[in-house]
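Notebook p. 47: complex prediction with flavin mononucleotide.
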Amino acid sequence: MRVLLVYYSRTGRTKDIALAIKSKLECDIVEIHDKANRKGFMGYVKSSLQTILGQQTELNIIDHNPKDYELVIIGTPIWVQNMSVPIRTYLYQFGNKMQEVAFFCTMGGSGFETTFRKMADLSTGNPKATLAITEESVKKRKYDDDVEAFVKEIDKVLNPEIEEVKG
Ligand SMILES: Cc1cc2nc3c(=O)[nH]c(=O)nc-3n(C[C@H](O)[C@H](O)[C@H](O)COP(=O)(O)O)c2cc1C
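Predicted complex, structure tokens below:
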């Protein structure tokens, strides 16, 4: 397998996009869980605070090593203009083991540019493709074209010779 897709999703929106990508691209897929209770209003407050303080969390055991993949796709919800705490923790643990990366996120509406920059800093420094989808688009299921374009960018990285022939 050449591609690993890793994502975290607190309320299911990032998961929807992860599954849409998986339906168009052959890849292994891992959903990250952490040990913190992030449910309800208190979970929202805790998640915001941990993000602002730059804290990490305790992750479930992940048995896929990103080192074994040509490219790792990482998906996160935006939390306080930043990546979610579980994804930050994942990148601290595994970011330096990745060969190539691509990022996607879901969000209320803002924070993806700085988030992708920070995710790049914690991994290879240079994502090959990025995709940001609003929660409104997820709800209305209006993301197919954007997901398609994202997967095409990744295909170009995996199969550069095909792109050369196309000219
Ligand atoms: C703690 C917390 C902070 C958030 N901060 C932002 C934000 O700064 N900007 C934004 O556009 N959306 C923000 N959101 C909204 C989420 O990014 C959005 O609802 C996302 O689609 C949730 O993804 P999920 O269902 O995969 O957890 C925040 C949500 C949470 C829980």
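Notes: Strands lie at 3-7, 28-31, 71-79, 82-83, 100-107, 127-134. The CA atoms of residues 104 and 131 lie 4 Å apart.
Next step: compare against the earlier run before touching the bench.
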